[in-house]
Design a protein that fits this description.
Mean pLDDT: 87
Number of domains: 2
Number of helices: 14
Largest sheet: 2 strands, antiparallel
Helix content: 55-70%
Radius of gyration: 26 Å
Number of strands: 4
Shape: elongated
Strand order of the largest sheet: 1-2
Low-confidence stretches: 299-317
Structural class: mainly alpha
């Protein structure tokens, strides 16, 4: 496909993905907040609680029934299409960016995995992720939420580690996000919506609703709520090569996910007390520690220059610019040029062009970060840059 068309297709699908994702996550955050802030003291008959709120110049009164009202209202608002379209556009984006250019974006350089094999592994991981999660939730572990959470976290970390062995850092991260997204939409499609439809049908048929299904739906909804922040980080992670480009990228992702869950837990519990206020400074300290322990080791194997008088002034000798320029022209300007020669790119990725010495000098920080510190460029090492060239 024409790379120009691909770029605009990427833009359109990504935009819709963001719009529907914001709508879905916003609804999730709001309804969990609503559930946690209900006034449950002496509720009216048939109610489990109510809540008064003010927003946008108006005052609202919301009531929650223990199960359902005696008679269904004429208009009942459902929340499902935000979730479905977020997942659909996410899979479309995964196909456009990673599966259609698997050799560039998905396959880990040196892994020996064929592009189509990598795509099959990616699709299989999404399917397996949902079935493993659903099985664990319906097992005896489902009765022990804390233990279930620990096991699910360990399973996702294991998946991140395994995927990092065959996928690029970005590819591994995005597939962990896709697994989580598939779990979340599976909860909506397979558990939450059937529970809600069963509740409405029971009321319409004048029979007592089964309380087990709504309770199960509420549990899965809470799972979705805690999974949102790790997914949001993964959505923006491609901007931070120090995370996905690290040798232990899977461990960094695990650490950032723990930090995300701590932050989410504070906001989910602060209505009752401040006993979990410690999670915020702990998360901040954890972020600092993670940045510290994952920092690249700064070493140099080049000798120090010695003046003619024999005194060492610690001035690091650098390679001749002409050598560096030739490496960049051969290995980098295939994509990063005003006129890229690689068929996958109509314009230079991220607008970075390295055609002239001045442009190269302007991008020194990025060049070092992405070709030396993390080795994530060239993408998929498609131009076969050698370790010696990276050192130069």
């Amino acid at each position: 496909m024409d790379p120009y068309i691909t770029e605009w297709l990427n833009l359109a699908v990504r935009w819709v993905h963001m719009i529907t994702g914001v709508a879905w996550i916003g609804a999730s955050f709001y309804f969990v907040w609503l559930e946690n802030n209900l006034n449950r003291e002496n509720p009216k008959e048939g109610l489990s609680g109510d809540l008064w709120a003010i927003h946008g110049g108006g005052i609202y009164h919301l009531e929650k029934y223990k199960l359902a009202p005696p008679k269904m209202p004429e208009t009942l608002h459902w929340f499902k299409w935000e979730a479905y379209f977020t997942w659909i556009t996410g899979v479309a984006l995964l196909t456009i960016v990673f599966y259609s250019n698997a050799d560039i974006y998905l396959v880990k350089p040196g892994s020996g995995i064929e592009p189509m094999t990598a795509v099959a592994i990616g699709v299989g991981s999404l399917i397996a992720g949902w079935f493993v999660y659903d099985f664990l939730c319906d097992s005896p572990l489902g009765k022990k939420p804390m233990l279930l959470g620990v096991v699910l976290f360990a399973a996702l970390v294991a998946a991140a580690w395994a995927l990092s062995l065959v996928f690029s850092g970005r590819g591994a991260y995005i597939h962990v996000g896709a697994i989580i997204g598939t779990i979340m939409v599976g909860n909506v499609f397979r558990i939450i919506m059937p529970a809600q439809r069963g509740l409405v049908k029971a009321i319409e048929e004048n029979r007592e609703p089964d309380p087990e299904l709504p309770a199960k739906g509420l549990l899965r909804s809470r799972h979705n709520n805690y999974l949102t922040l790790p997914v949001l980080f993964i959505m923006i992670s491609n901007h931070f090569p120090s995370t996905y480009g690290n040798e232990y990228n899977w461990a960094i992702l695990a650490g950032l996910s723990v930090i995300s869950v701590l932050v989410r837990h504070y906001f989910n519990t602060r209505h009752g007390s401040q006993k979990y206020a410690w999670t915020i400074p702990t998360a901040a300290l954890g972020l600092v520690c993670l940045a510290f322990v994952s920092a690249p080791t700064k070493t140099s194997s080049v000798p120090m220059a010695v003046e003619s008088n024999g005194h060492n002034h610690g001035v690091v000798e650098v390679s001749e610019f002409v050598q560096v320029k030739s490496i960049i022209m051969e290995r980098c300007t295939v994509c990063h040029s005003q006129s890229p020669t690689h068929p996958a790119f109509a314009t230079a990725p991220a607008g970075v062009m390295l055609d002239t010495p001045q442009q190269m000098q302007n991008e020194v920080t990025r060049i070092v970060a992405q070709t030396v510190t993390t080795n994530i460029m060239p993408l998929g090492n498609l131009t076969q840059m050698t370790p010696e060239e990276r050192e130069a």
